[in-house]
Amino acid sequence: MCQGIFARVGDHSEIEELAEHSPVPVINALSSLWHPTQILADLLTLHEEPALQAEPSEKTKGPHAQLAPLKPLVVSYIGDSTNVLHDMLVTFPRLGLKMQVATPNDPLYRCPTPVWNRVEELGCDKGIKWVDDPKEAVKNADVVITDTWISMGQEAEKEQRLKAFKGYQVTEQLCREGGAKEGWKFLHCLPRKQDEVDDEVFYGPRSLVFPEADNRKWTIMALFDMLFGHWQIYDPNLIKK
Q: 189 an active-site residue?
């Protein structure tokens, strides 16, 4: 018997079905609609970046480090409406971060109805601006994020998608012309293709992609400890009865 399941699936219905019938906790490692563990790594990466902190980080008297709070950041996302973006939409606004999203003006690249329904249910839509001009999306941005334009299973759409996302590559020029803040930082969940972001940004001083990738390990280990390590399959009180 295992103590938990960390499942990377295709359609989101698969993770829901697994959770419905599993006797142990199930963590969504990735589904067609959501990617919650990626957002934990993204948030930790933002909190660790001094330029984005509201005040210096200080250790508490206990065994754990106290993360410094974030400034009221403007987070810009440019590209396809992927599962990574979907979790940002239901997470960042609740933490006081403003989101500015640019996707092509086509339902194919916009937020799926089930996701947007959840966004509205949580009241997050008030903190989101959605446009189709990447330059408009990066205005006053503290953080610029993109993701793959061609997800698994969309390979046959490659030519169409590359055409639709023309002008969406994250570059210094795009962010300068769009009016991003001088010290803006860059995130990408990887793997990255050069169409999405050029080498100057990806490998440059603005990029936080490698700490972001490393933080995937630590945040997932923390989840395992919290949800699997401190969880009992059987309630001792029920066993006594």
A: yes
